[in-house]
Amino acid sequence: xxxxxxxxxxxxxxxxxxxxxxxxxxxxxxxxxxxxxxxxxxxxxxxxxxxxxxxxxxxxxxxxxxxxxxxxxxxxxxxxxxxxxxxxxxxxxxxxxxxxxxxxxxxxxxxxxxxxxxxxxxxxxxxxxxxxxxxxxx
Length: 138
Hints:
single chain; 32% helix
C-alpha cells in the first residue's frame, strides 16, 4: 500500500516511507492525505489548465450573508475532496468558529479512511486564514 502521493514518491528529497507496524502505516497514510488536502484546499479553481475544477472557488467579494458563505465554503470543501482525494470519504463538514481568531474560518471534517483493510473514522481540522488566504490542515 503506497502511503505517499505520486509526486511525493517522485521527489528525491521527500521523506521515505517504511514498512512498520499497522499503527505506523495508518499514521503515515493519514499524514499523506492531510498533506494532499492542504495542497488541494490552497488551490483555486481555474488555476490548473488540465483540471479547471481543481481547488476551491474564490470567495473574495462574495456578497452572501456570513452564514450562507460558511455553507457555500463547506459545500465547496466537500466537492473538492470528493473530486480530487479518493482515499477518503467525507461524511460531514462542520464550521467551528473560534472567537479568539475572528479572521479565521475553522472546519472539522468527519471522514472515513480505509486503513489496514477496514474503514476508520478520522476527524480532520481545516483552518482558512482570512489575511494570508492560506488554508492549514491539521
